[in-house]
Amino acid sequence: MNRLQRVPWARASTIAVVAVCVVYAPVAMTELWSYARPGAPAPGEWILGRTVSPAYVAEALRTRVAPYGRSLVPLIVHSVLGGALMLLGPVQLLSAVRRRPRLHRAAGVVFAVTVYASMAGAAVYLVRTAPEDAFSGPTFWIALATILVGTTLSVTFGILAALGRFPDLHQRWMLLCYGYLMTAPLLRLEWGALPRLLPGLSMEEINRVATMHLGSVVVFGALLASRTLDRRGRPGSGEAADPLGGAGTWVPFPALVLAHLAGGAALAWIGWSFLSWGTVGGRLLLGYLVPYAATFAVMTVRHRRAGRRGDGWAREEWRLHLTALCLAPLFSLAAAVPFDRYAGLDRPTALIAGVAIGCGVTAFAATAVVSLRVMYARELVRRAGPAFAGTRPTTVAARNEVEGVEGVWQSTP
Fold first, then answer.
1. How many CB atoms lie within 10 A of CB 69?
2. Distance CA 287, CA 271 (A)
């Protein structure tokens, strides 16, 4: 697999993701059949019942009969097409890595149409379902709605990037889109795994804990995949290929420090609030903080390593996403205000909902800023085109500046 073969952990991660997708596809496609016809095959329920207990599954299913019954056809469309997307995603990734443009393009069209159709089914369900009737209540309803919007916008921006001949941005948006889609299989995995760490909890309570961090996990995975597949940076060339165009960073050091301070203060407020709710709040806080801290640590290390090896573009991308991660708790506090005042939620539920969507939303914003950064670099190339065509740069730094900007949009995803 060319580039991925040079990074053992990336190859292992790719194999793991493909395996999860292939195994989850039939589970997704059959998940709602039993609601339409009792006794129909439901491998997901069977596996979960034997992983945890039949009572654990039965208790959760009883509460879903009425809400699902009001939107059963759209939900079946959503789940069946969602299973198809689990198979189409690996096809897209592997066809891009193996440089098979025709297959990649054809599968991409099918993928995009399937995303829109699947999300339409989910939208019908959300419109017909009151937030308090959603699994785990309004928090999960808000998280689902946010994932729906993020998935739809990501695939749309990915299409626009492809049409605009920005393959690098197309790759990033489509990976983010697939990251949002991966919340479904990862949530099922947590339904089976978390009861071992938190015994005695119902699936509804486990679902609340998982909702605290699924957004941060999937968008971080998409970022890791984007950075792994990015070919820019040429070790041994004297200076890394850099699409910054000599413009420096868009997040100067004082701004980065300010983001850390604001995010830290917001995180302390969130922690104090959650702990004041007793055992339940402490459990939710743990579900949020552990993945957040791990993500923050990896981003910080990668940002510093990129700076030490002189890879300006990698350093800038990590810096933009690190800033967004720092601001996620602040966004969560801000989002809790309208949830409290205008959505009719009590303050604890409003804050929990804000925390659930914070990392996913700010990562989307960071990807948008990265896109603007690349488009700005391409504009620099366009303006420098005539001069560059007439004379070649005479210094290593000048060559790297122009060639690095060109590499932003000439690389194939």
1. 11
2. 12
| Cβ atoms 88, 106 nearer than 8 A | no
Could you give the 3-state DSSP secondary structure of residue 150? helix
Cα→Cα distances 345→131, 331, 354, Å: 10, 17, 11
Sign (positive/negative) of CA torsion 91, 96, 99, 101? positive
H helices of 7-71, in order, are 8-30, 33-36, 43-51, 54-62, 65-69
Contact 360, 180 (CB under 8 A): yes
In the block, which residue shows the tokens 């420096």?
Answer: 248
Rounded-to-integer distance, Cα 6 and Cα 397, Å = 27
**CA dihedral (239, 241, 244, 250) positive or negative:** negative
Q: Which helix (H) or strand (E) holds 405?
A: helix 396-410
| Token pair recorded at residue 92 | 């897209």
pTM of the model: 0.88
Contact 25, 87 (CB under 8 A): yes
In whole angstroms, give the CA distance from residue 348 to residue 208. Answer: 13
- pLDDT tens for 2-40 read 454 455 777 788 889 899 999 999 999 999 988 888 888
DSSP strand E in 159-273: where? Answer: none
In whole angstroms, how far apart are CA 335 and each of 242, 354, 355, 357, 361? 36, 5, 9, 9, 11
Q: 6 to each of 9, 29, 272, 307, how far by Cα in Å? A: 9, 35, 44, 21
pLDDT one-digit tens code per residue, 153-169: 999 999 999 999 888 89
